[in-house]
Amino acid sequence: MWAKSFGLCFLALGSDVSAGILGQRSTDSFSLYAYGDNIGGLPLYYADGNAVIANHTPDNATDVGQVAFTPGSSGPLVGNPTNETDTSGKRSSSGSFSNQQLFVPSANSTDHQVGFTTSPSSEEVTTKFIWYGHFLLVETDDGEYTSLFYAKKNKTQEGAYSLQWNITDDDEDGEYYSISMRSIAPSNA
Fold first, then answer.
1. What three-state secondary structure class fits 170?
2. Which of 22, 55, 124, 129 could form a disulfide with 120 if both were Cys (CB 3.0 to 4.6 A apart)?
3. Alpha helix (H) ranges present in the chain?
4. pLDDT (tens digit, 9 = 90+) per residue, 42-74?
5. Which residues share a beta bridge with 51?
6. Per the record, which residues fall in region Disordered (predicted)?
């Protein structure tokens, strides 16, 4: 199977994903944060159309900024620049992007890069996001809820990672970290 099933994970733990706690977010604005091994709540940035998680504003993009999301009317997560200051003291709201929909690559895509778009292609999934509490999941075509987010180390910028989806290849170089995306900021934010 191409994907790990979030529901199977809960079954293995003796729990079940209740339909009552899965659903759409409210209309309030929120940011997304990455959590995983050695990644403790890094905020999500827009960087020239790509999704990046970092402990500071990424330097290697021309249109860049931390993202604040609002749910769209049909389910997409619509992002715009925040007015936040990152941990290095830089303003991260310098991005000129607006109304960008977060997407994950479809099961048919050969690309793994998560990104942003205003006009999704058939290989960009924007409307299948679902919430389990504060955890962001994606519903597959089979109706399973999955969390297949990965962080790929940026080789030129310390503390920055490219946000990836559904990495099934062997990671011999240790470049990828399995992460979850949540709408809760870290306690030190």
1. coil
2. 124
3. 6-12
4. 999 999 999 999 998 888 888 999 999 986 555
5. 46
6. 64-97
